[in-house]
Amino acid sequence: MRISEYWRLMDDEFGAGYSRVLSSSLVLAGVGGRTADQALAAGVEPRKVWLAVGDVQDVPAERRLGRDIAPRRD
Question: Residue 54: which of 45, 44, 65 has the closest Cα?
Answer without folding.
Answer: 65
